[in-house]
Design goal:
This protein is α+β, with helices and mostly antiparallel strands. The protein has a domain of 202 residues: Ribosomal Protein S5, domain 2, CATH 3.30.230. The protein has 11 helices and 12 strands. β3 and β4 form a beta hairpin. The longest helix is centred in the C-terminal third of the chain and has 25 residues. The radius of gyration is 21 Å and the shape is globular. Bound molecules: alpha-D-galactopyranose.
């Protein structure tokens, strides 16, 4: 039984235990790892994420009452009941049911009807690791309710992603971009996705069959994430206003040189990161297409340095681990922090034979600190949200 079969079975059991009947639908949506293009999505820029073979399963069955009952046994023993005939109130900050409430409200805001339902949620992504467990839940939930409502035509990947993103903005409290939700909805087997976050065009970038994506937890649980994240977004918007453009996507290196006089030094660094990161993302795509692991490695290392120095979202233990991985790779591929920052995971791209090399180097790094190696995965890009059954 593979990991996601086991997850589907757990969702089925959780549903039966809570509601004493079988679910009508099981919907899966994956988490993601971002190869490069960090903090560019909300600047209308380029990102290159891949869907992971881990995620969230939402089990659902309809009922006639105008309410949704929901359980999430991984995080709480409570049954959450949400009335559909009243305004969908937000629960307290950080409460898991905001992911449910937010998606229901997003669907209502988009003019979709929410059927009464019982829902069970289970997942196999570590939380607070920067692997988008939140987006995967939002997308699985959006897919589940759209299938349950059964109205044709079904929303496409972009519509599902937008609903899940709306939920984050209005109910969960993070002013995130669209990368996590869109790759969770649209991910493709064996390919990373180059997403133009302005047009939302999605272009698969196949990974050579010999390549692996390594995802490694730094052991630092992400903290202060939403407040620092929202601040970075405001700083980027302020920098764009300084340049007189709608978003930082609209300035090139020349305009940056010319227009940066008088710009606050912090905003200047934030803008410089975004400009450079967009260019690096496109170079990384070309390097992957040409199978050039050296150039890809340069892009990944430069991305990390820029996130550390200019965007200031890395933390010393993550920097130290990135150095260990990059040293072990010796230029054939590269490693960097991934996701919003402030702890969480690192990503590396290497040949299959490099995976055990990285695992050993990381294990030694943690052993020197008297710690065990946290989560370590060597994976291929997986597919996006789908109906699993029953
Ligand atoms: C988080 C957000 C994304 C993106 C990344 C940083 O994962 O949810 O929208 O901004 O941070 O690249």
């Amino acid at each position: 039984m593979n990991r996601n079969d086991a997850l589907a079975q757990r969702a089925d059991e959780a549903f039966r235990t809570a509601f004493g009947r079988a679910p009508a639908l099981l919907c899966f949506a994956p988490g993601r790892v971002n190869l490069i293009g960090e903090h560019t999505d909300y600047n209308d820029g380029f990102v290159l994420p891949a869907a992971l073979p881990l995620g969230t399963v939402v089990a659902l069955a309809p009922h006639a009452d105008a309410r949704v009952r929901c359980v999430a046994p991984d995080v709480s023993a409570d049954v959450e009941t949400v009335r559909l005939d009243a305004v969908l109130a937000r629960a307290g900050t950080g409460h898991w049911s905001n992911h449910l409430r937010g998606v229901l409200a997003a669907r209502a805001a988009a003019g979709a009807e929410n059927p009464g339902a019982d829902v069970a949620i289970v997942g196999n992504l570590p939380q607070g690791a920067g692997l988008s467990s939140s987006a995967s839940l939002g997308v699985a939930m959006a897919l589940g309710f759209s299938r349950l409502a059964g109205v044709e035509p079904q929303p496409g990947a972009v519509a599902l992603a937008r609903q899940a993103q709306w939920s984050e903005h209005h109910y969960v409290g993070c002013q995130c971009g669209i990368m996590d939700q869109l790759v969770s909805a649209a991910g493709q087997d064996g390919a990373a996705l180059l997403i133009d976050c302005r047009s939302l065009a999605v272009e698969p970038v196949p990974l050579d069959p010999d390549l692996r994506i390594v995802v490694l937890h730094s052991g630092v649980k992400r903290g202060l994430v939403d407040s620092e994240y929202n601040l970075r977004r405001q700083q980027c918007e302020a920098a764009a206003r300084h340049f007189g453009v709608a978003s930082l996507r609209d300035i090139d290196a020349g305009a940056f040189e010319q227009g940066s006089t008088g710009l606050d030094p912090v905003l200047l660094r934030r803008a410089r990161h975004v400009l450079g990161e967009n260019a690096r993302t496109l170079s990384a795509v070309q390097a992957l297409r040409e199978g050039n692991l050296r150039v890809l490695g340069e892009c990944l290392r430069a991305s990390h340095a820029s996130l550390r120095e200019d965007f200031e979202v890395s933390v010393p233990p993550v920097d130290a681990l990135a150095d260990v991985l990059n040293e072990a790779l010796a230029g054939e591929g590269g490693a960097r922090m991934t996701g919003g920052g402030f702890g969480g995971c690192l990503v590396a791209v290497t040949r299959a034979e490099g995976v055990p090399v990285l695992e050993q180097a990381a294990a030694m790094h943690f052993a020197r600190r008297g710690e065990r190696l946290p989560l370590f995965l060597g994976v291929r890009p997986a597919r996006g949200a789908l109906l699993l059954g029953p």
